[in-house]
Amino acid sequence: MKKRTQDISISDLLRGNTRTLLLAILKDGPTHGYGILYELERRSEKMLEFKQATLYPLLHDMEDEELIVSEWDVREGERPRRVYTITDKGQKELEKRLETFHEFSMTMYRIVGLNPNERAR
Amino acid sequence: MKKRTQDISISDLLRGNTRTLLLAILKDGPTHGYGILYELERRSEKMLEFKQATLYPLLHDMEDEELIVSEWDVREGERPRRVYTITDKGQKELEKRLETFHEFSMTMYRIVGLNPNERAR
DNA sequence: TCCTGATACCTTGTTAGGCATAGTATCATG
DNA sequence: CATGATACTATGCCTAACAAGGTATCAGGA
Description:
The structure is a homodimer.
Chain A: H1 10-14, H2 18-27, E1 31-32, H3 33-43, H4 52-64, E2 68-73, E3 81-86, H5 88-112
Antiparallel strand pairs in A: 1-3, 2-3
Helix pairs in contact in A: 2-5
The structure holds a DNA duplex.
């Protein structure tokens, strides 16, 4: 039976990389949840985005895992924000994840016979 | 509550890249299922592997999607093998997928501040 | 002779990560 | 005073990859 071709899904490519992205953004300074959404959009030039339903539970999990810590930033006349800071454990986790990501990506490039330095056609 | 850190999972990184890998391998010539497993292991130097429960259903789906075609290769005194060949549609799909993969990967590198040309530490 | 491991294919049900959807609330702007 | 942006949270769904199990043939060793 003929079926429609599976769409290529960014969500699937994102899978397994969300923690890495979060840690990488937080490495450059404490940020609150909503700000991370903005920062990711900015750095990726709108190619990538987290859905709120992805981001917030993930932040909570990562705090449970002690990769990040949070504190409420309450200011007069402003909505309270929960600001997240990367921990030492988080830094180490980031290093490990970057290594794995890099190794995986280079293996992918090798297998498919693509050169990472060439511009996309 | 403290939780154990999520392990970095190759399965998750693989997600969304399996069709791309399959098509890339079949692009270099018709191959039977079990042979694809071997070829992937060889090209990735054992970093990547498909589980059989991933491979076979995927091959069937991709045949339904007309990205590949199969025929039984029956030989005297040998177990029958189902040999898969990439179609024109599959070739085009591969191109699209490679473009998306490349774009995604380069975006990842940019966001995490890693240089794809540097060796992993 | 029988057992193990490799080859070769297939199926059923589970898992878990990302998401759709919905809800709450504040503030600026027109 | 309605809308959109900001800011956080919770519940339940979807689906790709996998664990586990099955069938069968053949070679090689104990």
